[in-house]
Structures are given as structure tokens and as C-alpha cells.
Amino acid sequence: MKLITHNMLTSNIIKGVTKGFPLIIAPTKVEVKEVDFNPDFVNKMLTKIDYPALYQAANSVGHGEGLPEQLGDDVKDNTDLLKALHNAMLQVEVIEGDLVCPESGRKFPIANGIPNMLLLENEVET
Amino acid sequence: MAASEGKAHVESKQWRKKFAKKLVKIEKSLAEKENVIITKEKTQILCVQNGGLGNGVSQAELLPLFSQFGNLESIVMLPHKQFCFACFTNIESAAQAQMKLNGFLLKTGSDPTQDVILYLGFVEKAPSNIAPSDEKPAGLVIVEEFVSEAMEKTLIDLMDLETDDKYEDPTVMKHRKVKHFGFEFKYSINDVDIKDPLPKGIPDICHEFLQKALERGLINHFPDQLTINSYQPGQGIPPHVDTREAFEDGIVSLSLGSSIVMDFSHPDGRHVSVLLPRRSLMVMNGESRYVWSHGITPRKSDIVPVQTSHAIRSACDLSYHGGSSYQDSNTSNNIDVSSCEGLTLRARGRRVSYTFRKVVMDRLHMCKAACKTSGREGSALEDATVPQTDSEAVALERKHVNKVYEDIAEHFSGTRYKPWPKVVDFILEQPPMSLLADVGCGNGKCLGHNKTLFEIGSDFSSNLASICHSRGFETCVGDVTCLPFRTGSFDVVLCIAVIHHMATKNRRAKALSEVVRILRKGGKALVYVWAMEQELHKTQSKYIKPGRQQKQDAIGNEGILNSALTFDMKQGPSRLGHLASCQGFSGTQTKNSRLDNSNLNPGSVSSNLNPGSDSSNLNPGPDSSNLNPGSDSSNLNPGSDSSNLNAGSDSSNLSPGPDSSNHNLESDSNNPNCESDRNNPDPKSGSCDPHSLESNFKPKPNLFGEKNTEKGYLQSSSASADALSSTTVASELDLARQISVGHSESDYFLGSKSCVKEKKTSDTNSVSDIHNKPSESSLKKLSVHVNRTQFKDQDLLVPWQLKGKHGGKAKHESSSEGMKGDLFHRFYHVFRQGEIEAICKKVPGCAVRKSYYDQGNCEIVQAVKRKGQISPRDISAQIKMNNEVIHTNRPSVKQTTPQTISSQQGGKPDSNDQQLLCD
Asked: Looking at the partner chain, which of A2, A40, A121 has a beta carbon nearest the beta carbon of B474?
């Protein structure tokens, strides 16, 4: 699971959970897999993701290096920063571990890079 | 060189214009159907359309032609394909050849439309020559030289001479002559009447060699039924499986007079062509008898491996040591054609086949076995009723959707490697750097086509999710009714063939609203579901096999219900269907994707390499007219690939007159099916070209736009006529269709209907509420669909037969047990026209943008979360789509019809060959 994917995930499907985002990452195995760097892509993705969540996630998996707590306006042409963002969003992958609902503490296992977000029937709002 | 003729053409302005158009069309067709991408850049490799084995061109004809332009490395010919690849060692030679030979008239036909004109384009790569496969279906045995030449002559004479008695008078079928001994095989019921034996049993002359076969253990029973078929060159028999309940295992066929290539197809998509040499005995046991369908493609010559001819083979051995040595030789003039080719063409002669079978006499016993099996199998199904509550629905889905996919994931994935073209088109048209979620991504076949997107797949099945992830896609395990994604986070959502697995209306609505929820405003979703109506304008989708339907009915009438289960493992679907619901249910089907094997590379050419999957032979004449069930059909092999791009033949087969009028009759009601075919975004493409196949199918434009369209749905839904008549109506079209559409994997998609949903926006697209009432009678048992028949219920179970280790081996011991474990049932809710649109209407922020039928029975909804109205342009686009739809559907009829029919006739009825697998 790349952190950009994590950025889209929420546990608010659980009954009673309202936001469920961002999910806390409790990794046991993290890998960095190289992905071609495309600054335009990174810039574009920044418009689609929740940056604070990415920042938090990257730090929680130990790959927050080079990321500011908040993004300024100068990102667009700051190649170093874009590369750091690129790394955080696309190269860092959580292979094993858990995603934890920030509200209920419910754990969603990540196995082999795949988070399992299924709920039990009684956890679902009906 | 014959270029003179070509030149003459070229000088005509008109011709040149036509030619350019033709090229565009060919390019498109190659890309869509064959995955052959013509590049603008010059390369060393030329794709030569109309220079393929599939349209009777041999390598020998092409070698001298192409080699004059320089270093020709090889000519790669693929079985049944109407194109080949000329591979040069340098670009200049290829460019030269392309310049000089594009439009080259290779040979003239009986009339100008039959001329073979070569069309050339550059491609990046060519597949390697296919090594002739030694593979045979499991359980198939061929004994060469089984009878002497003298015996051969005697047996052929027997067919020809004894015609004096009623029973021996050969029945002349459309495509072959048939004669029965022992029992008459009744094509009307696809069975013999065990109480009505023929006066003459198996001819004495056969006893000796049959005894021999028995002693050698080739067969376990002494046959008591003989069917003699006589095939002239050009005749064939559609793919079929001999009626499972009628005959024991071990079906024996003696080939006399001429060798022939028999095509075997496995329900999982494998195709194997097997050469049956003259005087050889073929025995089909186990899997080859019960699971694989077999048939003979009607054509006048066969493509056979070179090694079957010793003379050629030795030449081959001499000169062919891997491609490398050959590569260096640049003068192809003196190259023995066969030397670099694994395949060659061999003309057929008249062939007489003696097919011996052992009739199953103990039908009662079989009935018991069937019941027993059904009891067990049925245990899984007995509680399967149409769910009344969401929690019942969840329970049903867990068992009949989620668990099934989990269990069949690997096999399922292996048959699903290629996304539907329209889905890909949709994906490709999304703006770069969009964020896409594919909910219900399965093995990820829809992912990775547009590299500019960032895509995340989600599937309920962790096994499928693993497969998807292993292909390099971001994947999570999730439930479409509660998607673990943030609201408004995706630009694009795909939900392909998922929502029909939700067992209540409420859950279907929930799934749809989830899809819309995760879309950002202005985002778009594409939703496919299966459509109930497998018929448009009385034209059935490709999925339906009319013959099957009829057969089904026939069986029902005959009360053969019981016998069913014996073979269910092989044929699971239909049999179980009967047991499960005694009323004529019929329906489900599946999208059988007889895709070629488990190649997970969508772009790969391998899909083209399936021998047997295409039959290039189109016999328009008599065949096409023969649509009566029970009668033989010929050319329409299901697997037939007909992407015949030969200009001539296209137009020749189209009968614009009838076709178009046919269309007009229904054109207004067509729209519903309006398929926004993204394949054909350009209104000009296809439809307007008189020479294009599509053109004839153009319905009247619907000036009323979408609304009307929806209305159309209603109308057409009510118009589902019986299979037979519809078939008939469409027959001519079908033929044409077959040509243009070809048989790529798309045949196996069920007709689908689609609509594009837009989030937020006008209600102009609203659908009448009539459709809003899915039929859900209380405690109604779920019926089990019979593959390739029309749906009779909206809620049903669709069988999936896992190809398995059990294969068909256990067959004879207890037919009922062998493959039992391999049969799964998936729940489907097939959508009535307008139904999905009605659901969309209730989802906040969701507006249907387009809805259309795709080839098959899916209903597609494209949702866009955005404001925006449909511009006139869109409307016309939709109209176009309508045309497309029609097209798409036509072919199906054609192909399906004949096959089935013929199978009934074939003496080896009950084909239904393919088990359909669906998503």
C-alpha cells in the first residue's frame, strides 16, 4: 500500500465512526520501491490528496524526511520537495502492518501490501 | 508482378479515397480485435492484412512477393487469421515493401468482391510463429492407420450404396449427409429413443475392428449406435459435446477418405486443433468427451502442422534451425516456404466419418444418480431463495458471490485477462493524472491501460485482490456497499460487473451510491451490470444460443429433467438449472469468456494465437439462411473469427437492403440500447461508409435524445420475442456481422447495457419507474441459469465450472461425482431495462449521462458527478452508439445460432459447448 492509497482510505464506514481519517498506520514492514519521478504528476496529485494526512502517514512509517508540516506556495518548482513528496506518495509502501481507525481503534490488517478493509456485518451502519 | 493491377486502381482517385478509408478501418479493427497496433513510424515489420491463412493465402504466395524488397527475415502466419506479419531485417526494406505492396491485388476472386487485396501497415512487433501444438484434450486418443485402405473403401461405399431403406436413406443436412444405425439420433431431442431401435444395428463389417478396439482397451463398451457423416470439402459440423445423458463415455470416430482438422474447445477458453488423419480412429474419453466441445470448421482446406507431411518436414528440418540461421539469409527467393513455417495449408477431400457410440440404456439409474448428486449439490442451493432482507442478501452474497470468487479466483482470473474494449476506451478518455478507483477490480484487468492515471483497485475477494496486486496495481480488499474510500476523492470510478451481484434492490442502490459518493464533483463513473434482456430489436446478444434455448425447452417437455445430473459436472449449468427450478427457467448465462488462456497481459498478441478460435470461413449462402434449430449450420463456428477486412467480402456479405429495413422497423425503440460506444467516437467512422459493415445497421437517428432513449428501453424490453423468430429475422445480418465483428473475446461478453451517470445534474434522464420493480416474489427459489440462454428470472444463480484436476477423468466411474466439487454458483441479479437508471435517479448527486448496451448483457452506467447537460453532440454520439449496439448484437445471433443448431444435427448434439463463465 502506497501512501497515496492510504490517503484515500477511511474507516468511516464503521458504524458510529464519523471521519475515520486519516487512518493510523502501524507498520511492521515498509519498503521503498522506485517509481519514475514525474513532477507534474506529483503537483497534480497534491491537489487531490490531503497533505496533512500524507505528512502524518509518511512520518509514521519513518519516511517523512524532507516533508514540511505544511506546504507553502513554492512547491511547484521546488524539485527537491517534489521528489520528497514523490517518495512519500508513490515510493514508500507499507507491506505488512495494520491500519487503525483513529476513532474506534478498529484494526485493518495490511498483508502483502494489501489492506483488508472489510467489516463484519455488525460493524456496518444499516 | 501483379502490381500492375494494383496500380491501375491506385490511379483512380476514387479508388484511392476508398483505399484510405479502408486502411483506417483496418487499422481500427486490428487494434480492437487483434491487439495489433499499426504505428505511424516505420518499422521493420509489416502487418499484412488479407495475407493470412485465415483467408487462404499461403506463405508460399507471399515470400517471393516480399523478398524482392530486401532482407526478409520471416513471414509469420497465424492460424485462422486473415493477416500475417512480414518481418524484414531493416526498416528500408519494409518501407519499400509497404510502399509498393500496399493495395496490391494478390489474386482475383470469382468476382471483384472476392479479390484479395493486401493492406500493409507497420507494427512494432510480431508474434513468433506458432509451433504446431502436440497438445490434445485430456482423454483424447488417436490411433493412426486403424483400418486398411480396403476397409476404408468398403466403409465409404456403405455410406454411398445402402440407401434403399427408410432408415438408411441418408439424411441430407445442410452441411453434410448423415446416416444412422442401431438407433436413430433424433436431432429434435438431441437423443436417441431407446424404445425405438432401428432395424439394422451396427453393420457386421464394423464388428471386427470394434472388437479390436475393445480388446485394446480403447473403448469400454461395444457400441450400439452408429452415425455416419459424409462431409464434402467446405462442410463441417459446429462445435458440440455429444449429449451427455444419451451416450456412455468413449465415443469413437473413424475418419475415412480424407484427413481433417477437428477443433476442440474447452470452456475455459483453450482451443486445440487436432489433425485426424485418414483411416485413423479417434476415441474421446473423459474430459475430451464431456468437457471439450469438438467441431469441424467448414472450409476447403486445413491448416496443418508441416510435420504432418514428411516431405515438407524434412525440408523443414534441413533449413530450419531456430530463427537465427534463417534470419541471415536474405534472399528468400529460393527459400522453401515450409522451412520457416510450422503451418501449411492442405486441401480437404471428401471425408466420411463413422461415429460409434454406446447408448445409455439405463436411464432410470442415471436419473437416480442425478437426483443423488443434485441432492448434494443442491444442498448448497436449497436455501438459495431470493433474499427478502439485506441481511439475507448479505448471507447469500457471502456464499454465492464472495466465497465463490474467493474459490475460483485463480481460474476466474485466468479467463479474464482482457478488459472490454469500451471500458478501456472510457479509461483512455479520462484526463491525465486523474485518480481512478476500480471497485470490484477482480484481477485488475481494467487497470494499467492508461498510464497517465493513478489507479487503485478494490475487490471483496482477497484472492482476486492478491492477483491484482501482484500485477503491480495498488489494491485493497473492500466491499462495494461500504467502500473504504473518502467521499469525493476520485476523479473516476469503475464498477464493472459488480452491482449485479448484490442481492437486494437496497444493496444495489447502496453500492451505486457508494460509487457516486467517492467520486469528486464532476467525476465520472462507469458501471456495467448484466442486462436481463439479451435481445435487442429481436436480435439476440452474442451470449444467447437459440438452439440451446430450444433444446432446453425440448428437454423440459420430454421430461428428461432427471437425467440431467449425471453429467452436471461437465455441463453443470443447464442440468442443475432444471433441477433447481422446474419451470423453464433458462437463463443465465455467463459471459463466457473463452478468452484465450490466462494471459494476463492485456496488450499481448497472444490472444491471436488461438488456433481454433477463429474460423475464417464464411459461407454466406445456404448456411446463413438456415436457422432452424435442429438443422445443421455450417460455418458459424462459434469460434470463428471473422475479422475479414477484405473490402470485397465485407460488402459482399452485407445485404444493405434487408438489414437496414430491419433496423428501421425498430429503430425507435432501439435507442434504449443506445450504447455509447466509445469505440466509435467519431461519428464518421464506420457508420457512414457504405462499405463499412456497420453502415447497414444504422438505425434511424433518434431525434429525441435521451429521454426517448429510455422510453425505448421499455418498448424493447417488452418485445422479447422468442428466440427462434428473432434469430431468423436477423440471419442475414448476422453473417455480415460476423465478418465485421469477428470473434475476439468480445463474443463472450454478454450483451451489456450501459448508462453513464453524472453526479449532480439534471433529471432529464430520468427513467420511468416501471422498471423499478424488480421481480422479487417472496421466497422464490433462485433458479440456476443455463449458460447461453435467455434469462428468465432476474435473480438467479449462474454456474461456474472450475476447470479442475478432476477434469473429466472420474467420468465413467460415477459421472455424478467427478467434478462436483468444481461447480460453483454465483448469484446474479440481471437488470431490466431502465432499472439501473432508476436506481441512479435515486442516488443523490448522480445523473445518468449515457446508458447503453454493450455487447453482452451488461448494463452500463456511466455516472458523472457533475453538472452539465447533454449537448446535441452527445446525443448524436449516442445515436451512433445505438448503431453500434446493433452491430454488436447482430453478430452474436449469427454465430450462436448456427452453432447450436448444427450441434443438434450433428449427431452429436448437445453442444452447448462452452460453459460460460461470467464475471
From this structure: A2
CB B222 within 8 A of CB B170: no
In chain A, the percentage of residues whose pLDDT exceeds 70 is 99
**Contact check, Cβ <8 Å, A117/B474:** no
Residue of B nearest to A114 (CA): B476
DSSP for B504-538, written as a single string: SHHHHHHHHHHHHHTEEEEEEEEEEEEBS--EETT
Domains and CATH numbers, chain A: 3-117 (2.20.25.10)
What is the DSSP annotation of B297-366?
---SEEEEEGGGSHHHHHHHHHH-SHHHHHHH----TT--GGGG-SEEEEE---EEEEEEE-B---HHHH
Using a CB-CB distance cutoff of 8 angstroms, which residues of chain B are in contact with residue A114?
462, 465-466, 469, 475-477
Question: Using the beta-carbon criterion (under 8 Å), do B486 and A9 form an inter-chain contact?
Answer: yes
Nearest CB among B474, B489, B490 relative to A1 is that of B474
Quick: pLDDT tens for B687-701.
333 333 333 333 333
- B469 touches A: beta carbon within 8 Å: yes
Output the pLDDT for position B237: 86
For residues B111 and B519, give the distance between their C-alpha atoms in angstroms, rounded to a whole number. Answer: 56
Please, what is the Cα angle at B316 between B312 and B319, to 5 degrees? 140
- Shortest distance between the Cα of A63 and any Cα of chain B, in A, equals 19
A5: Cα separation from own chain's centroid: 6
Omega within 30 of 0 (cis) for the link into A22:
yes
Residue B838's identity, in one-letter code, is A
Judge: A119–B437 Cβ closer than 8 Å, yes or no.
no
Cα(A79)–Cα(B862) distance, integer angstroms = 38
Only one residue has cell 515470400, namely: B63
CA distance B624 to B616: 15
Estimate the crossing angle of helix B723-741 against helix B656-670, to 10 degrees. Answer: 110
Question: Who's near B672: CB < 8 A, 6+ residues apart?
Answer: B709, B710, B711, B712, B713, B714, B715, B716, B717, B753, B833, B834, B851, B853
pLDDT attached to residue B672 = 34
Q: Please give the ipTM for the structure prediction.
A: 0.97
Contact A10 B391 (CB under 8 A): no
Q: B476 and A114 in contact by Cβ < 8 A?
A: yes
> Using one digit for the tens of pLDDT, what is the confidence trace for A61-71?
999 989 999 99
A107–chain B Cβ distance below 8 A for any pair: no
Cα distances (Å, whole numbers) of residue A14 to A106, A118, B465, B481 = 9, 10, 21, 12
Measured CA to CA, the distance from residue B911 to residue B567 in angstroms comes to 13
Q: Which of B478, B486, B489 sits opposite A118 (nearest CB)?
A: B478
Q: SS3 of B756, please?
A: strand
| B145 grid coordinates | 492407420
Q: What is the mean pLDDT of residues B597-614?
A: 32
CA A106 – CA A123 distance, rounded (Å): 10
Find which of B426-430, B454-458, B816-820 is predicted with most confidence, using mean pLDDT: B454-458
Interface test with A, best of B396, B455, B474 (most A CBs within 10 A): B474
Contact B541, B573 (CB under 8 A): no
Angle formed by the axes of helices B390-397 and B505-517, nearest 10°: 80
Q: Is B795 touching A (CB cutoff 8 A)?
A: no
- At B719 the three-state DSSP class reads coil
Residue B421 corresponds to which cell in the numbers above?
A: 474494449
Integer-rounded Cα radius of gyration of chain A: 15
Nearest CA in chain A to B506: A126
CA distance B912 to B238: 10
**Who among B437, B469, B484 is closest to A114 (CB)?**
B469
Three-class DSSP category at B564? helix
pLDDT value for B336? 37
